[in-house]
Amino acid sequence: MFASYKRFWINIFNFSGVSNRADYWWPIIINYIIGGVIIAIVQASIGHSIDNIYTIGDLSIAWERNLIVLIVWIATLSVRFRRLHDTNRTGWWVLLDLIPVVGTIWFFILMVLPSKPNRWQ
């Protein structure tokens, strides 16, 4: 679990390799849990929703949140590309997730498929 999460961050800009199912799913699950805990702590400490900006401090928190979200989004995009490569598909299949409902379901199915020998290894 921790090795998969470490590889997630080490390969943040690697869009050409492969990632097995564990290397995809463990970071996704861990990031959701960590994100939820951090948001709950920040909202409890500032006393209101993280989306509301009332002071300069709130603006600072919003900028920091957006920067962290961008970094995690880039790392998640790269692991999605690598996971698709592991199922012998091109990274362009990631665009399937942009189709509402059906695309999201189909992309989820692609992420749970077993690994295949492919040209990216």
UniProtKB/TrEMBL annotation:
Q: Does the keyword Membrane apply?
A: yes
Transmembrane annotation, as ranges: 24-46, 67-85, 91-113
Q: Name one GO cellular component term.
A: plasma membrane
Identify one Pfam family in the record: DUF805
Keywords attached to this entry = Membrane, Transmembrane, Transmembrane helix
- Domain of life assignment: Bacteria
Q: Which InterPro entries does the record match to this protein?
A: DUF805
Signal peptide positions on this chain: none
Q: Under which name does UniProt file this protein?
A: Putative membrane protein
Organism field: Weissella oryzae (strain DSM 25784 / JCM 18191 / LMG 30913 / SG25)
